[in-house]
Each structure stands twice: as structure tokens, then as C-alpha cells.
Design brief:
Structural class of chain A: mainly beta
Number of helices of chain A: 0
Order of helices and strands of chain B: EEEEEEEEEEE
Order of helices and strands of chain A: EEEEEEEEEEE
Distance between the termini of chain A: 41 Å
Helix content of chain A: under 10%
Strand content of chain B: over 45%
Largest sheet of chain A: 6 strands, mixed
Number of strands of chain A: 11
Mean pLDDT of chain B: 90
Distance between the termini of chain B: 37 Å
Structural class of chain B: mainly beta
Radius of gyration of chain A: 14 Å
Mean pLDDT of chain A: 91
Largest interface: A-B, 26 and 26 residues
Shape of chain A: globular
Strand content of chain A: over 45%
Low-confidence stretches of chain A: none
Oligomer: heterodimer
């Protein structure tokens, strides 16, 4: 059974600081997604990482994927309050043409002024 | 920008009643999914659907659950006899092709909050 583990699960940080969220998974996959969820809202796609060594950046967020280590990171640079949300990584399992995402438990990020 | 829509946004039902949750996926997408999220917990896969049939389902998706694409636009999740533990946020998602280059992101709808009393 595929396991996806995120850490930390809760992160409280000051504005302007940097931090990294980690996502480890237990089986081979070449595709990993990062989603953002605001309270009571849906999941917003942030990044799609499709191959080993993939790095994507959008604003203050940068995601990377190491398929050999089965590890993805979401790095936050100079955090601002608007980044407060829960961040999920999700690993793709495609079987027989059908895609299935297995999600981590999420990292609840709070950025304090 | 195209988006996945879901109705209703909130459904309250009595235990044992049937509910139907509705979704309109993005129009050119081929693959459809249901996920659920119990309050404060992670998102869990329920079922995937392609070419008018179920592609894969999880152990959560038992005989009480069914999915249907009754026409060219709607995708529904039916829970035949709801239980208290079915209370959750249910998300519909769609994607165009799992093997397509850079186009296989699953786009999620806003969710239906199901409360079973």
C-alpha cells in the first residue's frame, strides 16, 4: 500500500522567513502534485512534477522532485501572510490507464506578521 | 477559465437516506474522479471513471456507492443508504488524459459538504 508522508504537519512561521515542507512516498512514481487548500475551500493545483530532478517555481514557492529518494520538497521563501493555508502533496498512481492520487495528510501553514 | 462545478454546496440528510451529489467536469476532460475529505483529515480517493465505466475504486467505495454519467456533462455520486460516517466533504475532479504530457493535472471542484444526521 502506498504511503505518503508529509512533515511537518503543522508549521507556524514568521513573515519573511524561509522553510521547507517535505513529502516522502513509499513506492515508485514519476508524478507528484502539490495542492493548496484554504479553509472550507477546494484544492488548488500549485505544481505538477513529472520527472526526476524536476523543479518548478511560482512566486515564493518552489517545488522539487527526487524520484530516486522518493522525496519532494516545497520550499517557501520570504513567507507572507497570504501563504497561510494547508498544503498537500499527492502521488500519482496510474494503473491500467486510470489515474489515482494518494494524498499526504497535509501541512497546515500559518504565517504570522 | 474552465472549472469543475458541484451541486449542492451543502447537503444535510438523515441516516439511511439516499443522496446524489452532482458534478459538471471540465467539458473536454475524459477522466472523472470522486474524492472525500473527512473534516480535518486528508483527501481520500473513492473512484475513477472513464469511458462510461469505473476504472478503479477504493475500499471505501462499497456497494452503497455508485457513479453515473447520465448525459454528456454531469457526473454523479450516489450514496444509497447514508451512514453517520459518510459525513465529509466530497470533491469531484476531472482530467483530460493521465498519460498526456503536462496536461494530466486533476482539477478539483469546490466540493459538497455532506452532513448525515
Amino acid at each position: 500500500e502506498l504511503k505518503v508522508e508529509q512533515n511537518p504537519l503543522f508549521l507556524s512561521m514568521q513573515e519573511g522567513k524561509n522553510y521547507t515542507i517535505y513529502c516522502n512516498y513509499s513506492t515508485t512514481s514519476d508524478r507528484l502534485y502539490w495542492y493548496r487548500q484554504d479553509p472550507g475551500k477546494s484544492l488548488e493545483s500549485l505544481f505538477v512534477l513529472l520527472s526526476n530532478g524536476a523543479v518548478k517555481q511560482e512566486g515564493r514557492l518552489m517545488a522539487s522532485l527526487d524520484t530516486k529518494a522518493r522525496l519532494s520538497t516545497l520550499h517557501i521563501t520570504a513567507a507572507v501572510h497570504d501563504l497561510s493555508a494547508t498544503y498537500f502533496c499527492a502521488v500519482d498512481i496510474t494503473q491500467g490507464g486510470s489515474e489515482k492520487l494518494v494524498f499526504g495528510k497535509g501541512t497546515k501553514l500559518t504565517v504570522n506578521p | 477559465e474552465p472549472e469543475v462545478t458541484q451541486t449542492p454546496s451543502h447537503q444535510v440528510t438523515q441516516m439511511g437516506q439516499e443522496v446524489i451529489l452532482r458534478c459538471v467536469p471540465i467539458s473536454n476532460h475524459l477522466y472523472f474522479y470522486w474524492y472525500r475529505q473527512i473534516l480535518g483529515q486528508k483527501v481520500e480517493f473513492l473512484v475513477s471513471f472513464y469511458n462510461n465505466e469505473i476504472s478503479e475504486k477504493s475500499e471505501i467505495f462499497d456497494d452503497q456507492f455508485s457513479v453515473e454519467r447520465p448525459d454528456g456533462s454531469n457526473f454523479t455520486l450516489k450514496i444509497r443508504s447514508t451512514k453517520l460516517e459518510d459525513s465529509a466533504m466530497y470533491f469531484c475532479a476531472s482530467s483530460d488524459a493521465p498519460e498526456g504530457p503536462l496536461t494530466d493535472t486533476q482539477y478539483f471542484g469546490p466540493g459538497t459538504r455532506l452532513t448525515v444526521l
